[in-house]
Amino acid sequence: MEKKAKAAFEAGIKLGALYHQWVGTPISPQTAGSIEKAIEGAVGLQPYVDEISVKIDTSQMVLNTFGYSELSGKMFDVKIKTKVGNATCHAELKLEEDYPMMKITELI
Amino acid sequence: MEKKAKAAFEAGIKLGALYHQWVGTPISPQTAGSIEKAIEGAVGLQPYVDEISVKIDTSQMVLNTFGYSELSGKMFDVKIKTKVGNATCHAELKLEEDYPMMKITELI
Amino acid sequence: MEKKAKAAFEAGIKLGALYHQWVGTPISPQTAGSIEKAIEGAVGLQPYVDEISVKIDTSQMVLNTFGYSELSGKMFDVKIKTKVGNATCHAELKLEEDYPMMKITELI
Amino acid sequence: MEKKAKAAFEAGIKLGALYHQWVGTPISPQTAGSIEKAIEGAVGLQPYVDEISVKIDTSQMVLNTFGYSELSGKMFDVKIKTKVGNATCHAELKLEEDYPMMKITELI
């Protein structure tokens, strides 16, 4: 039980961290790929992260007068897998109705 | 079990989030109190947070040429309590040797 | 001329910095005051800042399912005065149509 | 004169913004390149930016227990060129003694 809870805790840390590190970044459909890679690379450095995939939903981008947008929580589609000993947590950050929801999808 | 894991997950989200939201903020011993209050207020708005206490260790501040410092991970002493149903998670963010460590201190 | 340009440069630094430091913070009408104070305190520490006033437009807040909002660029109404020698720059960050515009309002 | 001051103001905005957007990001010598590209791409979207170059000084990285570091102001070596009409501002963000200094290097 302790290891499962820790795997869930660690997944939460990484999702909360990436959200608040990156929200507000200037972004466009053309630069979304480099931001996805940079986030994956940064999160992948952190302890207990086994897999991380970041997609930014460019259809959520509303371009401003100057032709770009800002990364917002609603654009994230993130899947993460953390491992602590033999416990594994799968979690995600994804738009649900109007809220960028973080949740555990599997904990074994 | 599911509720305990979720309480741990939610605690992780809040600690990861506050760390990456606030690190880098210009700060001095004189303004530390207002930053502590602002962080506590912001985290307290988020779901499942039952208690939050933020202390910033001003002894870790090295003032630059212009007489101020920058909020860094090593300055944080944070205690959080999350509740999901009847499950409760106590967690903290605190300097351990040279690393700002996040960990679960009690999960019941 | 050189001092005026530097006063303008310094005003730009502070507005760009505060925007990207604070966007994404969980916020509600009840906590807006403490965030305003924290930002004013943080910016006031930085070199060449003579005056800083931060108002957050709570009417721009759309509360999510959990009853809070996130600080976004559109909520800012910031006025700053920087001084470099005898040069003074007044600048602001304020919503203009749909863009959070930063501009110099007076440079003397 | 007005256009020169605005070019300086815009350069300041971009440097202040990138600093506070990106400081705190987990980073290592292996991921520095992807972060440099992501920052260049993001800043390049913003108005009045003509050229932007971002180098992260990996020799400043002190790896923690888990083998990574955090992007800090001291690691930045940034050069930016902004244009407003026929005015051009060259500015930079670079470590000077112990302070990550932002300054105008040429304004014409």
UniProtKB/TrEMBL annotation, chains A, B, C, D:
Annotated ranges, domain Dihydroneopterin aldolase MtpD C-terminal: 3-104
EC number: 4.1.2.25
Reactions it catalyzes: 7,8-dihydroneopterin = 6-hydroxymethyl-7,8-dihydropterin + glycolaldehyde
Subunit-level organization: Homotetramer.
GO molecular function, one term: dihydroneopterin aldolase activity
The keyword Lyase is annotated on this UniProt entry: yes
InterPro entries tied to this protein: DHN_aldolase_MptD, MptD_sf, MtpD_C
Membership in a protein family: Belongs to the archaeal dihydroneopterin aldolase family.
Key words, A-Z: Lyase
Role this protein plays: Catalyzes the conversion of 7,8-dihydroneopterin (H2Neo) to 6-hydroxymethyl-7,8-dihydropterin (6-HMD).
Highest taxon above the source species: Archaea
Gene transcribed to yield this protein: mptD
Protein name: Dihydroneopterin aldolase
Gene Ontology biological process: tetrahydromethanopterin biosynthetic process
HAMAP family: DHNA_arch (MF_02130)
Species lineage: Archaea, Methanobacteriati, Methanobacteriota, Stenosarchaea group, Methanomicrobia
